[in-house]
Amino acid sequence: MPKTKSQEIIFSIMMVIVMVYGMVTYNVAINMGGLSNKVFLIALMELPIMGVIAFLVEGLFVSKIAHNKASKIVNLKKENPFMMIVMMSIITVCLMCPIMSFIATIMHHGVNVNFIANWFQAIIFNFPMALCYQLFYAGPFVRFIFSKIFN
Hints:
Elements: H1 5-32, H2 37-73, H3 81-109, H4 115-149
Helix pairs in contact: 1-2, 1-4, 2-3, 3-4
């Protein structure tokens, strides 16, 4: 895990890239009716804008809130530090999913009569995927790569 501010920034960039690309790929596949090679390219083109937005949202708001909430739930003196990682991941997804779904809904559907319905649908589709993807793939993958870089 990151030990310095610069390591925190690098870790966040890595996590944002992996999470945003995965989630954008998932959403593009849903919108196109399935997965194809074209989906990966479209997701790659959307990655820069959604990545910057996610990095700013996570860095300016979500990270601090998630850390504070997780610290109140997990007692590191009594529990394994792994529990703090899991709790931070869960809380981060709980906060980021509605926020990023809101932004994506505005970008892709605009603010119209069905905005709330479109936003809620995006949250309902994205939340289970984001949580599983974070806990079982993106989080462990980024922590593994990070540990190899900053051994």
